[in-house]
Specification:
alpha+beta; Elongation Factor Tu (Ef-tu), domain 3; six-stranded antiparallel β-barrel; single chain
Length: 391
């Protein structure tokens, strides 16, 4: 309905111009509002959160795996310093013990009798010592008062008897101290905090001095011992990093560092090598079989770096890999093609496409695109250490 039609109606339905305007204007506002609702503003851009790692760990060129056995770094065979009859053993295999805790005890009765006997002998020595001392002092007093009443020989004999009994007192005192010490040694206490790995005696068994009673090891301080062939031992040195895997936990990777390299070959011209497991947990126990992976230096080979598998994305072409490099200045990522020489554990050995200092996205790469703006996790800085950002 236009304004002209509204105002030219018949007499019975004619509307005044003011009435027409009062109808047309509200309709105009309703139509304009409906048009605004149809044109909604675009949604804000979603910025993804990522984790990064700095390229810093050289991988070398050769990776070798060696079977071995888990050992405790600190272990001790505990024994009594005296022999006797075992009265009680208070711990079992697998028990955790605290330093100074009572582990086992011998029958104390024979040792207590020895203490009583030595005490009695010391008392008799003291009595003889007192008697000879009085006799010597009497001879000295007589000689002083009347030189002719005694002889020098009698004085010398009294002095010799006095000195002899004094030495007897010292001897029996030492004997008493020893048997008291033996009595104390009938209790076997833990020399350090540890775990019982072996129990070699039972109550009412007779044990010798120095015979192994229990074996303890320090928990969470483990190492793996392997044999390295003579053609590879030249590549192994103390401080070389590696990885350890256990058959019962194939998906768990433990970090290790070589702590000992044998100087002489043993069986089959192989050298003993030990690597300390840096992050051993409750599941790493002495005696377990293990596999140690070592990445040897490549000499004059091209440099290579270890990159976590979570950082890899499909290649830019049909084959290969790529990674996303983070630019802290623009907070964007750039997809870069890389080349590698295989996989060591959960890490790829990358030889081309990256260099030390590059910041690589290690989590969330499947949702990224080249040039995308991202933000770092709240607990991470742009140059965070790779060990702290491993996904």
């Amino acid at each position: 309905m236009n304004r002209q039609a509204c105002c030219n109606r018949g007499p019975s339905s004619a509307l005044s111009p003011a009435r027409c305007l009062s109808i047309i204007l509200p309709l105009s506002f309703i139509i304009a509002a409906s048009a605004c609702k149809d044109e909604a503003p675009p949604p804000p851009e979603h910025i993804r959160t990522v984790k990064t790692a700095v390229v810093a760990e050289p991988a070398g060129g050769q990776s070798r795996k060696f079977p071995g056995t888990v050992r405790a770094v600190h272990t001790s065979s505990i024994s009594f310093e005296v022999g006797g009859l075992v009265q009680t053993v208070r711990v079992n295999i697998g028990d955790k013990v605290k330093k100074g805790q009572l582990l086992a005890a011998l029958d104390k009765k024979p040792f207590e009798l020895n203490v009583e006997s030595s005490s009695a002998a010391l008392s008799r020595s003291h009595a003889r010592f007192t008697e000879k001392k009085i006799a010597y002092e009497r001879e000295i007093r007589i000689q002083t008062q009347d030189a002719g009443a005694t002889s020098q020989k009698a004085v010398d004999q009294a002095l010799a008897a006095y000195e002899s009994t004094r030495q007897d007192v010292s001897f029996h005192q030492a004997q008493l101290d020893l048997v008291k010490r033996d009595l104390e040694k009938t209790e076997l206490r833990a020399p350090f905090n540890g775990v019982v790995s072996a129990r070699n005696v039972e109550p009412f068994e007779e044990v010798r001095r120095g015979q192994s009673v229990l074996e303890l090891f320090v928990e969470d301080e483990m190492e793996v011992e392997v044999k390295v062939p003579e053609n590879l031992i030249g590549n192994v040195s103390v401080g070389l990093h590696g990885e350890v895997r256990l058959p019962n936990r194939p998906d768990q990777v433990y970090r290790a560092v070589v702590s000992y390299v044998g100087s002489a070959a043993t069986n089959a011209n192989a050298f003993p090598v030990k690597a300390t497991i840096r992050d051993a947990d409750y599941f790493v126990r002495p005696g377990m079989t293990a596999e140690l992976s070592l990445v040897f230096s490549g000499g004059d080979r091209e440099p290579a770096y270890l990159v976590h598998l979570h950082a890899l994305a499909p290649g830019l072409g049909k084959d290969g890999w790529s990674v996303y490099l983070f630019d802290p200045k623009t907070s964007t990522v750039r997809r870069t093609a890389v080349e590698g020489k295989g996989i060591v554990g959960n890490q790829a050995v990358i030889t081309k496409g990256i260099k030390p200092g590059d910041i690589i996205v290690v989590a969330g790469v499947s949702f990224l695109r080249d040039g995308q703006k991202v933000k770092l996790a709240a607990n991470q800085s742009p140059t965070a250490d790779p060990s702290s950002t491993k996904p």
